[in-house]
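Re-running the complex after MR caught last week's input typo. The corrected sequence lines follow. Everything else is unchanged.
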Amino acid sequence: MNIVSLDFEGVLIPEIWVGVARKTGIEELKRTTRDEPDYRKLMEFRMDILRRNNLRLSDIQDVISTLSPLEGAADFLYEVESLAEVVILSDTFVEFARPLLEKLGYPFMLCNSLIVDDDGFIKDIVMRQEDGKRKAVEAFRSLNCRVFSSGDSYNDLSMIDAADVGVLFRPPENIVKERPDLKVFVDYPSFLEEIRRFVG
Amino acid sequence: MNIVSLDFEGVLIPEIWVGVARKTGIEELKRTTRDEPDYRKLMEFRMDILRRNNLRLSDIQDVISTLSPLEGAADFLYEVESLAEVVILSDTFVEFARPLLEKLGYPFMLCNSLIVDDDGFIKDIVMRQEDGKRKAVEAFRSLNCRVFSSGDSYNDLSMIDAADVGVLFRPPENIVKERPDLKVFVDYPSFLEEIRRFVG
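Corrected-run output:
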């Protein structure tokens, strides 16, 4: 069996926090894993900003529900699903992801979750496990599946390296420079061709 | 994260081989895992019958493409997908499953595959791994997911037992008698309620 594991943000949907930053006008929320590879540090930074700006989880969910998948993403995903099993491996949170997953026909996703306090503010994050993307890829390989992995960020590199085939999709320049060994795709048609080659 | 793992045949789609038996008029093809728990033996029996009746993989695929999901299955699946991550764990073969998966919006599925000879006859089966349903459930639990499992047949019992919560859906009488410890559901609305309880 062939499995295609894809990062969510930057591959199928826009960066959620960039969208939130834009809608709320809070520039600091534009910081992503592309800038700060330590995800817990990044999330603590974000939670602190939200609280200081009096933004509850429901406010963020309202913003997220106005976001759309990237242009062409739904058709691309459907094509991939016709070729192989698809799993989205993301470091985002189920509480954020569901409205966007619905717009993509509910692909299978493994990600993290949030803890919310009594006032509705995000209090903490629950990381499903350390280096969860890599461990998911390893688990699928242990089930005798062949795995293709792709993402755009630092937090995708370990799952890309753990897969049978791993490539970058629309990565920033610094990752391209650091990992000249990885193929880079920037549009869905050529990315789909690479997946077709993997499926064989 | 909550994962709902479902058997395919008998839970979301009709028994493929029963449908093939009906369309081809070959009564012996109605034998299922409900009758013969040893899946490899059952498949060798089926492959032998197909060859003796001059039926190639493409003939079987033609029959399968005329089958539909069980009544209410697509809506049920969509509801479950809105609550949790869904994985179909089946002992069928990707070559058979794809036309039916398409009719259900391509849920994520782990199953087996076929080897076809130069003349287009099914030559052998490739079981992804021994007791693959149970191992898949165990793998998801090792990724810190909570797993709900359900199926109707002997080959589902190990995954039902390996899950956090496991129930039977539309099982035959012999399994109900052998496993009085397992809850039994026969319609989608009550089954969905049980899944809602699991998700919490």
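None of the earlier attempt is carried over here. The radius of gyration of chain B is 17 Å. Chain B touches chain A through 29 residues (CB under 8 Å).
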